[in-house]
From TrEMBL, chains A, B:
Protein name: 2-dehydropantoate 2-reductase
EC number: 1.1.1.169
Domain Ketopantoate reductase N-terminal: 10-155
Similarity comment text for this entry: Belongs to the ketopantoate reductase family.
GO MF, one annotated term: 2-dehydropantoate 2-reductase activity
Catalysed reaction, written as an equation: (R)-pantoate + NADP(+) = 2-dehydropantoate + NADPH + H(+)
Function: Catalyzes the NADPH-dependent reduction of ketopantoate into pantoic acid.
Pathway: Cofactor biosynthesis; (R)-pantothenate biosynthesis; (R)-pantoate from 3-methyl-2-oxobutanoate: step 2/2
Keywords from the UniProt entry: NADP, Oxidoreductase, Pantothenate biosynthesis
GO cellular component: cytoplasm
Example of a GO biological process term: pantothenate biosynthetic process
Length: 317, 317
């Protein structure tokens, strides 16, 4: 990838994340190709609509492909699928990845980039940690509510060199980015928010404000964060003093926000438990650190997720 | 209290526990007086109906009082209120307790008998740990589904002496009892079941079979039990080897069973979190033992219990 030329992107997924950022990159002048599944025919006919405080957009025509179509080579491949579909990833990515292709992974979770780098050693892997409140409200139709910043974290020095071009492409589309030198630190910092607020929003059936303005729920979120902090330390990326209180304060100041897991739950989609909870638990356990409250949360989420889809309660009633 | 004579009982509460055991004691020939709140007028007019595999019963007339009525002295006062009403207990009990009155406490939880003994040093305190599946289906109307055994645990030697007469009164009504020498051990053994199954039945919205036949839910119940076992040990009443596996096995063999907390939750009643969770957590913490998974469960229950009654989610939406 060469800094300075007009970048081309292939975006895997036309959900809230893929649709929104793809639209912003188009607005900024990048070449953007989408790979969709159920929406391909719809988007080909009707285009892609984004409602957003940044301005509503209706992109039409849109360069959209099914995974089985021949797809032109792009500089950057953005992964914007849910991690619950990650068993499909190697097959989906294989035809798209060439020597030096940038994989920009917009998913949530831990150990994602290690897996990508191991499977595609010819690729340049960069994590893109999205702070976004948006959801898909219909085929090819995304509603962006708030936020949008991306934290970019390169997996290695080669990836580091590609950061400025990516930042420029996003900036042209009105998307703020910042850079974290340590991918592992960036992932754990994100988990410090995602682990409490995603799980609690499902189990307590409320948004961030519902958690923050209930003293007991806030205290539980804090306790979960302390467990994540201990695990991050054990993994060699301790949080700086004051990080967790500041994160809680910032959350209290946010407009009420539905974490992605709550949106998934309400929409009947499977929950991203493996990469958001099980992998961090495993990485911590490998260093001798347990996160018992986090584990309890993960178990409850996992059981409810499965029960909802298999109706265990009904089956034995 | 003299062994051998016809015992008299005053039963505080005409819910599932008070109504069912009161009925069985009546069947066995004891004198039984009930103290009711909302049901007084109804029971005076219509009596008390129990549907049960032991035989349906319709007691009429029933000796029923409001708390403010003058009430004859009884040998035994049974506490069959929810612990969520325990702030009313001293006032309710004061006119009923004389020198040597037996307080038979049928509530669930920890530290209950210590409180009673401290408030009423003239009384004889015995814990009655009920293994009962029954619920109130209307005013003065109880449905007994299964079980009914009571474990009696005396608070001291004086209480020990009253056990045979109590056992005889219950046996005459078809209620099996057994005796545990150590009240503290009996309470912790009961908590080993109550802590996981009450909480999980609410948070996972299912009965015991729903928990036992889901491998992940069963593993979580097991993990919660292990925390309770560690706390019981720290409190000086360790479980014997094999106790927890046997408890799990017995639960798997039970007919699907709705723990009382689930019935409370479904009926919109406040949950018994203080005596079932907070007191055990506090007693363990005093001995330097944490139960982090139990604490997480307690927090989630407490937040949901409060949210349901104050609609925090709605208030901030």
């Amino acid at each position: 990838m060469v800094n300075g030329h007009r970048l081309s992107f292939t975006i895997l997924g036309t959900g809230a994340v893929g649709g929104f950022y793809g639209s912003r990159l188009l607005v900024g002048g990048a070449i953007v190709r989408f790979i969709a599944r159920s929406d391909v025919a719809w988007i080909r006919t009707h285009g892609l609509r984004i409602e957003s405080p940044l301005g509503d957009r209706h992109h039409r025509p849109v360069d959209v492909y099914a995974a089985t179509d021949p797809i032109p080579t792009s500089d950057v491949v953005c992964i914007a699928l849910k991690t619950t579909e990650n068993d499909r990833l190697p097959e989906l990515l294989r035809p798209l990845i060439h020597e030096g292709t940038v994989i920009l992974n917009l998913q949530n979770g831990l150990t994602l980039e290690e897996e990508l780098a191991a499977t595609f050693p010819q690729a340049v892997v960069i994590a893109g940690l999205c702070f976004l409140c948006a959801h898909k409200i219909g085929p090819g139709h995304i509603r962006h509510l708030d936020y949008g910043r991306i934290t970019l974290a390169p997996a290695d020095a080669r990836a580091q060199a590609c950061i400025p071009a990516l930042q420029a492409a996003f900036a042209a589309g009105g998307i703020e980015t910042d850079v974290q030198e340590s991918l592992l630190a960036a992932r754990w910092r994100k988990l410090a928010w995602n682990i409490p607020f995603n799980g609690l929003s499902v189990l307590l059936d409320c948004h961030t404000a519902g958690i923050m303005f209930d003293p007991e729920a806030r205290a539980l979120a804090d306790r979960l964060m302390q467990e994540v902090a201990a695990a991050a330390s054990a993994c060699g990326v301790p949080f700086e003093p004051g990080f967790i209180p500041r994160l809680l304060e910032a959350t209290a100041r946010m407009v009420p926000y539905d974490p992605s897991m709550r949106l998934d739950f309400l929409a009947g989609r499977p929950l991203e438990i493996e990469y958001l909870y099980r992998r961090p638990l495993r990485e911590a356990a490998r260093r001798g650190v347990r996160m018992p409250a986090v584990e309890t949360l993960a178990d409850l989420l996992s059981i409810r997720d499965r029960a909802r889809r298999t109706s265990i309660s009904a089956a034995v009633a």
